[in-house]
Design brief:
rod-shaped, 84 residues, mainly alpha
Length: 84
């Protein structure tokens, strides 16, 4: 390898080195884009999970309200009908 480097003219050697580094940069850019896409997808999933959690809390609150006050409303309706 040393003989090859010594026999290679400097401009060719420099160009080969530049080409190799550009290839590495391209590879790193591809990895960066993949990671950015993954972050975007994870952010969308986190937002969706937060919305699902909010909807579940709302549904639980409605169910609890219906359980606590639904029977009471039925009793009031019955009394109202009875008193007519």
């Amino acid at each position: 390898m040393r003989d090859q480097v010594d026999s290679t003219p400097m401009p060719v050697f420099a160009q080969n080195l530049i080409d190799e580094k550009n290839a590495e940069i391209d590879h790193l850019n591809e990895q960066l884009q993949a990671l950015q896409q993954e972050v975007a997808e994870n952010t969308m999933l986190q937002n969706a999970n937060a919305e699902i959690a909010r909807l579940v809390r709302t549904l639980i609150q409605k169910i609890l309200f219906d359980l606590c006050f639904g029977d009471l409303i039925l009793v009031f309706d019955w009394w109202r009908a009875f008193l007519k």
